[in-house]
Amino acid sequence: MLDRNLVARDPDLVRESLRRRSASDDVMASLDRFIDVLGQRRELQGETDRLRAERNSMTKQIGPLMKAGKPAEAAPLREQVKALGARLDGLEVARKALEEEENTTLMGLPNLLDARVPEGKDDSENVELRTWGTPRTMDFTPKDHVTLGEDLGMLDFERASKLSGARFPVAKGAIARLERALVSFFLDRATEDGGYTELVVPYIVSRTTMTGTGQLPKFEDDLFKLTAELNGEEAYLIPTAEVPVTNLHSGEILDESTLPIRYTAFTPCFRAEAGSYGRDVRGLMRQHQFHKVELVQLTTPEQGQTAHEELTRHAEARLEELGLPFRTVLLCSGDTSASACVTYDLEVWIPSQETYREISSCSWFGDYQARRMGLRYRPEAGGKPRIAHTVNGSGLAVGRTVIAIMENYQNADGSIDIPECLQNYMGGLAQIPAPV
């Protein structure tokens, strides 16, 4: 979340960032409400401090009067102290209510945008930074991954629907192995080349954990909520490994010398996607359950931008090694997530759609997430602990990489070549043979 002192000191800075995000009238109004509530709470705190000082002064007078045998003179003071105590109790109730409203409102305000973020309303106004590779020219009409997979008998959406409903697949044979191969490939490259430490993390987390990375309270409708609780809190299936990995050091004070910390983790991801009905209903592009390898870095403020560029480069290198044409785009203000201050999307070429589609989103969050989760570090030069910065991105989304490989490496007979870097992970298989 934002620094409350910054919001109070420079509300116009926050208002301008909200304008760039094309924030709704309700969000704009919440900023005004926060400033109003903060002012009320500070006034009330001043009144509380004044009354406490007055009560303490009276209390100090009572003792000597009692010792001097003057209870009659002490009695009125006792009554005044009692009355002040009742007033202070009432003020404390009011203060807590204002503080709760203040925190709730602050939690709902999105991050400040980085100055590099271009202004725009939606993804049509994102800015292409660079491209890699040239889309392959095919002398046949390319099939989409659904047709390819069903012809091979290796993607079964009908039986998956019987098990769980729409937007779930069953992968078989070589396609299933391709998923497993990609997970191992991504993890090996992250740990061996990128210096990331591999984690195995919980797939079920508490409400506090979801709040730490910004999924709650804003995006609750997109999450799968469980009926069971964790430590007395509501529990959720993770939408991405970002949530448990970034929260790993929540509430801690790290030594600056340990930063940046680089983590990677493979997890299934679960998303209700309440706001996406009607989009990508065919195939693997948008599923309720999918696999992803996540890259996370915890940094100092000074390391944040470099870490963001480095992490993005790590994701780009995987696409290059796989030989998949892609482009890197800088998201505009209207397409940048609420928690991020700046985001690069990697978009891979999908032949059947004749366009690039997102396969990784790499974001720098500044201190927004770390402030929510209480993640700090102790500067080597001394002084008070400072709020850390967080960076994360997909390295990569496994299902979408499967789509890209199937479609970009398909042949006219329906066979699919395996990228050379994956063949050892596939037991030496160089091609998924054409359907008989």
Task: Give a brief rundown of this model.
This protein has 436 residues and is of the alpha+beta class. The protein is built from twelve helices and 18 strands.
Number of helices: 12
Q: What best-fitting shape do the alpha-carbon axes yield?
A: elongated
- Regarding CATH, which class of the largest domain? Alpha Beta
What is the arithmetic mean of pLDDT? 95
Taking strands numbered 1, 2, ... along the chain, how are they ordered across the largest sheet? 1-11-12-13-16-10-9-4
> Beta-strand level of the residues, as a percent range?
15-25%
Topology:
Blueprint: H1 4-9, H2 11-20, H3 25-67, H4 71-107, E1 127-132, H5 145-152, E2 155-156, H6 157-164, E3 170-171, H7 173-192, E4 197-199, E5 204-206, H8 207-212, E6 225-230, E7 233-237, H9 242-246, E8 253-255, E9 261-270, E10 289-299, H10 304-322, E11 326-330, E12 342-350, E13 355-364, H11 368-373, E14 376-378, E15 386-387, E16 389-397, H12 398-408, E17 416-417, E18 431-432
Parallel strand pairs: 4-9, 8-14
Antiparallel strand pairs: 1-11, 2-3, 5-7, 6-7, 9-10, 10-16, 11-12, 12-13, 13-16, 14-15, 17-18
